[in-house]
Amino acid sequence: MKLNPHKPMASEYVPVAVSGSISSSAEETLRLIASLPAPAGLEDRVHAALRYAPSRSPLRQVFVAGVVSWGRILAWSKALSPQSDWMRTAAAAAIVFVVAGGGWGVYAHVQHGQPAKVIVMPRAMQPDGFSGAGAKRTPQTLPGPTVILPVKPTPAQHKAKKKPAASLAPSPLQAP
Amino acid sequence: MKIPTSAVNDESRRRAEDAALAALVDQYAGALYRVAFSVLRNAADAEDAVQEAFLRVLRHRHTLGDVRDHRVWLIRIVWNIVLDRKRRAKTRPETDDVDELARVLPSAGLTAEQLAAAAQHHSHVLACVDRLPPKERQVLVLSAFDELSSVEIASVLGITESSVRSRLFRARNLMAGLLDHERSLR
């Protein structure tokens, strides 16, 4: 068996407890998988794939109509090359134009002078505990019994009544 | 008709690159297939990965002269391809079933029952390998290749050699623990 001088030997790194049969059986499986022979004719198929690959021009994966495929990308002419200065300037101008146009479009669609919506606060309840709950029309209820309170004359009224009495002067027109 | 010298040079250079690429295919296609199969565990997928690796080399064949170690360089390319495919295929059902293993495992001198039992055992071990953390699993899988040294494994994974050793140590410990646990459950 040809030994590789650079190959790390298991005994160098693995303690005895670990390098038991359990771990070695796992490595045996991996070595078995790693040593499986390649299928017959693999080299020929790879040669054929390389031969039929359009290798004379640079191929890249291109995304066309939702399909990723290998295709040829045409080279830009020098004047239209994305690396040229004026092309970059034009691209920057186009971006500025699109952004400014979009902003203007939004601004133009916004309606100015629209009255601000006012939040209507609920009315304060009346002292008797009832309110109209913001109803526009309230039914006319039947007039309830009215209480007639006796009106007491105020002292001012007494004075007002007495005043004409005090001015009772003998009138020539008045009969004795 | 006079052919420009640069065109002749280009043509001869291209032929030389094609010849070098063909030689790489003849020399390393098998090794790349085994690396791909150890991760993907599916013959068709592994072959696709090898073809994709060489197509990538074809696209960058002008850099072939700058590559110091073609074998490690190619293994690194196919390794990245298979990891990417494995990551993308996580949503699909696992393909490394017992039947596939029984189909590809060497069956010389084994009865059908023995072959089925071996496939069952290897499938069980590989399921435990899949449960390892990715960093440890990758080192363990690559360490199974006799032709890869720890320096080359480090080069493929883009890490230091000491990291390879420490990860390999952890991977073996974890693997032993997993298999021991599984064995105690039976």
Description:
Chain A is mainly alpha-helical. Chain A is built from 5 helices and 2 strands. In chain A, strand 1 (59-64) and strand 2 (67-72) form a beta hairpin. The N and C termini of chain A lie far apart (167 Å). The model of chain A is unreliable at 1-19, 165-169 and 171-176 (pLDDT under 50). By secondary structure, chain B is an all-alpha fold. Chain B has a domain at 1-91: RNA polymerase sigma factor, region 2, helix turn helix motif (Rna Polymerase Sigma Factor, Chain: A, Orthogonal Bundle). Chain B has 8 helices and no strands. In chain B, helix 1 packs across helix 3 and helix 6 crosses helix 8. In chain B, 33% of the residues are buried. Classes of the chains: A mainly alpha (176), B mainly alpha (186). At the A-B interface, helix 2 and helix 3 of A face helix 1, helix 2, helix 5, helix 6 and helix 7 of B.
Put the structure in a nutshell.
Chain A is mostly helical and 176 residues long.
Structural features:
heterodimer, A: 176 residues, mainly alpha, two-stranded antiparallel sheet, 5 helices, 38% helix, disordered N terminus, disordered C terminus, B: 186 residues, Rna Polymerase Sigma Factor, Chain: A, 8 helices, globular
Largest interface comes to: A-B, 37 and 52 residues
Based on the coordinates given, report the CATH architecture of the domain at 1-91 in chain B: Orthogonal Bundle
Order of helices and strands of chain A: HHHEEHH
Helical content of chain A stands at: 25-40%
Oligomer: heterodimer
CATH topology label of the domain at 1-91 in chain B:
Rna Polymerase Sigma Factor, Chain: A
Structural class assignment of chain A? mainly alpha
- As residue ranges, the low-confidence spans of chain B are none
Q: What would you call the shape of chain B?
A: globular
Shape of chain A: elongated
Cα-to-Cα separation, first versus last residue of chain B: 82 Å
Would you tell me the overall average pLDDT of chain B? 83
Strand order of the largest sheet of chain A: 1-2
Overall number of strands of chain B: 0
Element-by-element helix/strand order of chain B: HHHHHHHH
Number of helices of chain A: 5
At the fourth level of CATH, the homologous superfamily of the domain at 1-91 in chain B is RNA polymerase sigma factor, region 2, helix turn helix motif
